[in-house]
Specification:
Elements lengths: L3 E2 L5 E2 L6 H13 L4 H11 L4 H13 L3 H16 L5 H14 L3 H14 L4 H13 L3 H9 L11 H14 L3 H14 L4 H13 L3 H8 L4 H4 L4 H15 L3 H12 L7 H16 L7 H12 L6 H13 L3 H13 L8 H21 L3 H12 L9 H17 L3 H14 L6 H17 L1
Antiparallel strand pairs: 1-2
Helix pairs in contact: 1-2, 3-4, 3-5, 4-5, 5-6, 6-7, 7-8, 8-9, 9-10, 9-11, 10-11, 11-12, 11-14, 12-14, 14-15, 14-16, 15-16, 16-17, 16-18, 16-22, 17-18, 18-20, 19-20, 20-21, 20-22, 21-22, 22-23, 23-24
């Protein structure tokens, strides 16, 4: 079989006339382009025995965190095996998909990392490793993987996307100034790299510089207009900046016009929406009937049980929409995850800390603040493991702090706020400033 090199210089078992189509898929994955799925499907209609393409299709399905897509991923795995992978890299992808289907995404990432170590310019493998570690809450591993190949990308045509990935890992591991510099450099090289653009937005969030963050995003809308639903997430970052500045009306307007421009049931879109509405309600903002459509969608997805991150945002939506019976059933389903915790990594995280956090969210919504505080604080130690970013998980930090405040645990609330501030470059954002003021007032009144 004749092999042709792709974007990363990797030999690929596709006819030469299809390499351009494959490179378009790789660039789409790197840039989160809306065209990526259709492009991959079109390629596979022309080359259904392309094992690597089938493996990528399967992994992409698993990243969606939807129970029905697991079946599609298994079909893709079977097609990949039948396609007889022709290179060691293709073999690594096919077996990594099998690892993930067996409930071992960390093993899948390790298998791909071995391949990347051998071929450090492989853009596709680099990005897929980032995606797996991200959903598994492993920022240190994300960073180590990128740092291991940096020197090989000096003249790589996709260097900007690598720098965007590196910027995000630097931010998630607390090197904010370096993350900002790296992200800006990456966006200059690849202006359509919405991931790198949003990595810099994360820096502004973590360093309490909302106005500067708005300046960064304003005028760069073209950098995320081409994206799949990731574009809604970038708008979410913009709304968070307005929220921090107390500009609640603008945040709600962005919610309606952009964040929920499409009423999808994708867990990432629901997480954007539910976490923003929760933040607004913690500030005393009336969000109207916006919870209703989220709660309805969350109730239909409540049996997925694929990712703790998704489950906990569904729980936010159920609580916001006052679906108490559905929320109780949701917790019962999460309790059942303990039976698979030993053999399935995602189920293990759902069982702990996911279950503790879900119980805390339900108790908080029910006004049982002492119980909420106990559950949320118990889950907080392992919160990182649910995946996502610091900015995304911050809604659970805020509700934990709020439970402590409302339950009368003022010292505990202050300790949490100080720890949160320490991790945010020792900078008080609008949320922390307001809560510190509440604690001071409560203590003054108690004297």
């Amino acid at each position: 079989m004749a092999l042709s090199d792709d974007l990363g210089g990797m030999p690929t078992s596709l006819p030469a006339n299809l390499i351009g189509d494959w490179n378009r898929v790789i660039l789409g994955i790197l840039s989160h382009a809306a065209s990526t799925g259709p492009d991959l499907n079109h390629l596979l209609t022309q080359a259904p025995d392309f094992a690597l393409g089938q493996a990528v299709r399967g992994m992409s399905c698993l990243l969606l965190g939807r129970s029905e897509m697991v079946t599609v991923a298994r079909q893709a795995h079977a097609a990949a095996l039948a396609g007889a992978p022709a290179t060691p890299r293709e073999t690594a992808f096919v077996h990594a998909l099998g690892d993930w289907l067996d409930g071992l995404p960390t093993k899948a990432a390790a298998r791909l990392q071995t391949s990347l170590n051998l071929h450090p310019q492989d853009a596709l493998t680099m990005k897929m490793i980032q995606a797996i570690h991200f959903v598994m809450g492993r920022p240190c591993e994300m960073r180590a993987s990128v740092e291991g190949v940096l020197d090989a990308w000096d003249d790589h045509p996709a260097r900007g996307y690598l720098l965007g990935c590196y910027a995000f890992t630097l931010e998630e591991t607390g090197e904010y100034a370096r993350a900002e510099r790296t992200g800006r450099e990456g966006v200059a090289l690849s202006p359509d790299d919405a991931w790198g653009l949003h990595a810099v937005a994360h820096v502004f969030d973590m360093t309490g510089r909302a106005r500067a963050g708005l300046d960064w995003l304003s005028g760069r809308e073209a950098s995320w207009a081409h994206c799949n639903n990731f574009r809604f997430h970038v708008w979410w970052h913009r709304a968070l900046m307005h929220l921090d500045l107390g500009e609640y009306d603008i945040a709600l307007a962005l919610y309606d016009a952009d964040i929920r421009a499409e009423k999808t049931d994708d867990y990432r879109d629901i997480s954007n929406a539910a976490s923003l509405l929760s933040r607004l309600e913690l500030e005393g903002v009336d969000v109207g009937d916006r919870w209703e459509e989220l709660a309805e969608l969350a109730e239909t997805r409540a049996t997925d049980g694929c990712l703790a991150f998704a489950d906990l945002h569904y729980m936010l939506a159920l609580c916001g929409g006052e679906r108490d019976q559905a929320a109780a059933g949701f917790i019962a389903r999460m309790q059942n995850a303990r039976g698979n915790a030993a053999t399935n990594e995602a189920q293990g995280i759902i069982a702990n800390p996911g279950l503790q956090i879900a119980k805390g969210l339900h108790a908080f919504a029910s006004g049982e603040y002492s119980s909420a505080w106990l559950h949320l604080n118990a889950g907080r130690a392992d919160l990182q493991s649910i995946g996502g970013s610091h900015a995304q998980r911050d809604i659970f930090e805020r509700i934990t702090i709020e439970a402590a405040l409302r339950g009368g645990y003022l010292q505990a609330a202050e300790n949490l706020l100080r720890d949160r501030t320490r991790r945010r470059n020792d900078t008080l954002d609008g949320y922390a400033t307001a809560r510190m003021s509440l604690i001071e007032s409560a203590r003054a009144q108690a004297v």
